[in-house]
Amino acid sequence: MKEIVSPFRVGVVVIGALVAFIWMFGRVKEGISEDAAGYRVYAIFDDVGGLAEKSRVVIAGINIGQIDDIELAGDKARVWLRVNTPLRAEARVAKRQASLLGEYYLQLTPGYKGEPLQDGDQIKFVDYDVAPADLMNGMKDIVANVQSITASLNRVVGDEQGEQKLTEILTNISETVSEVNQAVKANAPKVDLVVDNVVKVTDNAKLITEEFRRDARRVLADAQQVASDARTVMANVKAIVGENRGKVGEGFDGVRGAVTRLQSALEKLDDTLDRARSIAKKIDEGKGTVGQLVNDDRLIDNVNELVEESGQFVKRLTRLQTIVAMRSEYYLSQTAVKNYLEVRLQPKPDKYYSIQLVDDPRGRTTFRETVTNSSSSGEDPVVREQQTITEDRFRLSLQFAKRFYFVTGRIGLIENTGGLGVDVGLFDDRLELSSDIFAFDENVNPRQRIWGTYTFFTHLYVAAGIDDVWNDEQTDFFVGAGLRFTDDDLKTIFTAAPAPSF
Predict the structure, then answer these.
(1) Domain's final residue, options 108, 129, 150
(2) What is the per-residue pLDDT across 404-434, written as a single tens digit (0 to 9) for each?
(3) Which of 81, 108, 129 lies at the terminal end of a domain, its last residue?
């Protein structure tokens, strides 16, 4: 009998279908927030294939938003996200593939440093998954490489020659293994002998160590016995000295005398220590000359000051440069030779003191007039006699010199009279032009000498010039040469010179 479907049953089925549809739709939209209270941020992607509006945005698998909009930005895509969780400047977004069917979603890392992102800010760090197409392309390259390798193997072993080479390789390996086996068998007795020798050596070493231990124990026992005997001897000596201190006979006179002398020495030592303690106490209190020397700081200060001043004086002496020079000049008109011996003391490079001893052929000229009265009527009652006397004697020059750049000025005593001098150094002082003016009262005009010197070597130089320029009767030209030595040169000469024998 045919069952009749009632309208009530049809209505129940339709209501159940609607409830199931609504439940399934809710499950699909679960986690997709359309809350207008969220904020929008964007990211720039090279490729947005598989992404669409309303696609999920997750953090650690939890939906926190969705894709709000996708727009073109030049040759890239700008993807706007609406999220409802805080993000920072170091946030990262990654395009992930949910399945092999091509469904994609965005995974966020909120970041922990930097300023919080505001509405409209950009997520600057974007990561990408490897696309299936890229994987397939990589697999293609791998397959191509495998095919190339198999083709090479096929070319090597695929023909008869390859099979023969492979057979030869296997044969060589088999022969090598067989020879190694034979070598092991042939050397097995030798290996056993080596092992036996090693065992014997270890046994001998064991015996030696055991014997050494026994000997060491005996040595220690002997040492302990010696120490015990020594203690016994010392105890006996002490007992003999103590018991026989008043009964010692002639045989113990030496011991008693030694003890007596030791006691006397100890008493003297105690007395000496007491005296030394007394002296130290007096010195510490500042008594006596030694105490004042030790405790008076003024004396130490005076000694330090004296030592410091002495050191400065010695430094000045050690820095003092000594130069010794000798020069001879030949005067053309007088046909005479004039000699100089100079000692120059130079404490600094820019000043020096000069001492010269001059042998001048002109000497010192004096005028003498003798007046004689005569009583003879036939003669002039007054007779006048004049004499010019030239004395050949040494002259002395003492000068102080100060240098300014390449010009050196001199002042002092020049050949027994006051005078001035100037020197001009040229060509690194190899050429020196000089002039002296002195003897202001010996003649009508003062005596001026102009000359130049040129140093050929370190110690040798030549000179030429004119003397007494302003007095025509005394004007003369001269040429000469000289030697100059420093104190270092003199030290070398005196050290190398042989000592005189008497």
Answers:
(1) 129
(2) 999 999 999 998 889 999 999 998 889 999 9
(3) 129
